[in-house]
Design goal:
4-stranded parallel beta sheet, globular, 20% strand, Rossmann fold, SH3 type barrels, alpha/beta, 7-stranded mixed beta sheet, 27% helix, 279 residues
Length: 279
């Protein structure tokens, strides 16, 4: 006679009989999963310290422990560390594959020049590892109007190229007029000037990275950084106040995903330009 309970109801695993098996899925970047508890849905952006970071379609990010509690296409899954991560393969903040145990190269004669200290700090935070591998130094000019003076004292050449990143490089702006005039001069062949459309490099940080819908509009005639600090209710009366405001903004930037694409492409262009072999 058949025993509907099986031969031994107390045998190991009896509690799991008939239960749906949960698949293990590697938490690869851009994998889209749903959180079973509250229905939050997002793509994997980072795995670190036993946790996974997810980003939803409007840019909001949340962090969860690896393991169970996730769903893909309505099926329960358990997120695990990807095999590549276990082996130590990782990416830099710019999205490039990290080079393990690589010492910084001796600096190339070529340079990337940016307008100010904040621009240099942002480029260093996201592209610093890549630049050290390539041996590229980033210097700041304290304003694009200082570029002519630098070119006159240290002219670029086939073996010493200058790539320049400029704020607010849009038709009709002061920065565009200066850049056009310089490129028409004697140094244009070994010089590349590119820029983003934003008034200041602060705006190259996506608003979602700061948890806001958009950057405030600042009236003409008001110092832009001062206006931003006022709009956010931050101290603004001294240079130290704006410096601390920038450090707060910079602390929210972790990878290239936190920056606007208008900046990302331009920096990559400059790195390619200054590292291209001389012919």
């Amino acid at each position: 006679m058949d025993d509907m309970y099986g031969s031994d109801v107390l045998a190991a695993g009896w509690r799991d009989r008939g239960a749906k098996k949960v698949r293990d899925i590697a938490a690869e970047r851009d994998l889209v999963v749903e959180v079973a508890d509250d229905g939050y849905c997002g793509a994997v952006t980072r795995v670190q310290g036993g946790h996974v970071e997810l980003e939803d379609r409007v840019g909001r990010k949340r962090v969860f422990p690896l393991g169970g509690g996730f769903m893909i296409d309505g099926e329960p899954v358990r997120l695990t560390v990807a095999a590549a991560s276990k082996q130590g393969v990782r990416r830099t903040a710019s999205g490039s594959f990290a080079v393990a145990d690589h010492r910084a190269r001796v600096a190339l004669p070529s340079r990337i020049l940016v307008e100010g200290k904040h621009d240099a700090e942002l480029v260093e935070k996201v592209w610093g590892a890549d630049l050290r591998v390539e041996g590229v130094v980033v210097e700041y000019l304290e304003g694009v109007d200082k570029l002519d003076e630098l070119l006159a004292s240290e002219p670029p050449s086939a073996t010493r190229r200058y790539g320049v990143l400029v704020d607010h490089l849009v038709p009709g702006s002061k920065e565009t007029r200066l850049a056009d005039a310089i490129l028409r001069g004697p140094h244009g062949r070994h010089l590349k000037i590119v820029g983003h459309p934003f008034i200041d490099v602060w705006q190259c940080v996506k608003p979602q990275t700061l948890g806001i819908g958009r950057w405030p509009e600042i009236p003409r005639g008001t110092d832009w950084k001062t206006g931003i600090c006022k709009a956010f209710g931050w101290p603004y009366e001294s240079q130290g106040d704006t410096g601390r405001a920038w450090q707060f903004i910079l602390s929210k930037v972790h990878t290239y995903r936190d920056l606007e694409p208008e900046l990302l492409g331009r920096v990559e262009e400059l790195i390619d330009f200054v590292t291209e072999p001389a012919v």
